[in-house]
Amino acid sequence: MSIAENITSIKAQIPQNVCLVAVSKYKPKEDILAAYDAGQRMFGENKVQEIVAKHECLPQDIEWHFIGHLQTNKVKYIAPFISLIHGVDSWKLLKQIDKEAQKNNRIINCLLQFHIAEEETKFGLNLVEVKEMLDSDEFKKLTHIQLCGIMGMASHTDNRKQIEEEFSNLKNIFISLRNEYFNDDVSFKEISMGMSGDYHLAIEQGSTMVRVGSAIFGVRN
Ligand SMILES: *Cc1c(COP(=O)(O)O)cnc(C)c1O
Fold this sequence. Notes:
alpha/beta, 8-stranded parallel sheet
């Protein structure tokens, strides 16, 4: 199937209120344009250099999402244009995003990344760390970030039950944070979970945003 057909088919499978982020990392701009021509506007990348280069040469109404691990010293390169940063995994990074957003006279939308998988290597925060951060006076001084929700990745496993539990765990974290900290903030609404292999399960568990790469663009080299 073509990229356009993949987009159409996935959109038909997901509810209207779930956002589709097309993960175009390592893929050429021709592939992105094929998805764009099929109506796709949200694209996700995980390398700073690559997202900057693609942003410069592709249509300006694309919403670029940064989905990878972001180094503090590289925030400045994406701050002028990024529409959502999914992987905020430290207080230091959040502060830096606020600083660069301020320089660019804009507010940058962020998701806090939680560690829900069993693998040790995946980046992410836990609930205790996040609550400490949200309770701090320093956090209240950040004026140029908007927390829009949370993000997580399930373990790389065939065990369906385990994946469901990890997604359900993320959903519960979201509910607990919303109830405790964001009751009056309608912007805190996103649960970014689900990739090509598990987005159906993620949606069943309450995902509002799926990040799909290979099911749209084919396998990556
Ligand atoms: C690469 C990547 C995806 C997409 O993975 P696919 O399995 O190709 O759909 C989603 N989220 C993150 C954080 C990624 O790095």
